[in-house]
Amino acid sequence: MFKTIKEDASGEIIEKKSRFIANIFYIESEEEAEKIIKSIRKKYYDARHNCFAYRIDKENISKSSDDGEPSGTAGAPILNIIEGKELSNILVIVTRYFGGILLGTGGLVRAYSNATTEALKKANIIKMIYGKIIRLEIEYKDLKTIEYYLKREKINISNVEYKDKISLNVEVTEEDTKKIENMINNKIILANNIEIIEEKYITKNI
How far is CA 137 from CA 29, 35, 144, 162, 165, in A? Predict the structure, then answer.
């Protein structure tokens, strides 16, 4: 299990006329991170610095870059924020447009940290838990009842197919699976046997 972001986010601060733009991305590989970094550098081609840090859970990788700023004043503070909030599969790039006033090492550390924090304030943090996708086949008349109980238990429906009967693809942990089995066995919800579709990381809102 790890925490990450649900969707991309951004934030911006001004520090002594320097503009710091923080962009946050969900990533799953180092290759994906490097591709995004390249695109940001192209987007902000006229900026003085594009400093970054990222952390990937599966590959157990952490990496940062000061991109020309004094050593340890940009990439490391960004990574410290990521690690302090226990986030993974996340890339943070902070772009700096120089305002003509030197900030000093302490000022740079604060600025890059604050820009990262500002962007994270706007991010939707979620938990990624190893689980599975299961399929339930139900009658049309039972849909609202099942939706009610799944919502109550904070179990996410990822896909719905309407045919002769309704097929629901549901994201579950082991605990969620037991809850659904109990509800079926006790006839609280009416559904056919549970079919496992895929094992994968699933999301849980925090």
Answer: 35, 41, 14, 10, 7
Please give the Cα distance from 54 to 176 (Å, whole number): 31
| Crossing angle of the two packed helices 75-84 and 104-121, in degrees rounded to 10 | 40
198, 133 contact by CB (below 8 A): yes
Do the domains 2-123 and 129-205 sit in the same CATH topology, yes or no?
no
Listed residue (176, 130, 178, 184) closest to 155, CA to CA: 176
| Fold designation for 129-205 | Alpha-Beta Plaits (3.30.70)
pLDDT at 194: 76
Asked if the model's pLDDT at residue 14 lies above 80, the reply is: yes
pLDDT tens digit sequence for 61-87: 999 999 999 999 999 999 999 999 999
pLDDT, tens only, 156-178? 888 999 988 898 899 988 888 88
2-123 is a CATH 3.40.50.300 domain: no
- Alpha-carbon distances, residue 116 vs 93, 169, 173, 184 (angstroms): 8, 36, 31, 46
Domain parsing of the chain, residue ranges: 2-123, 129-205
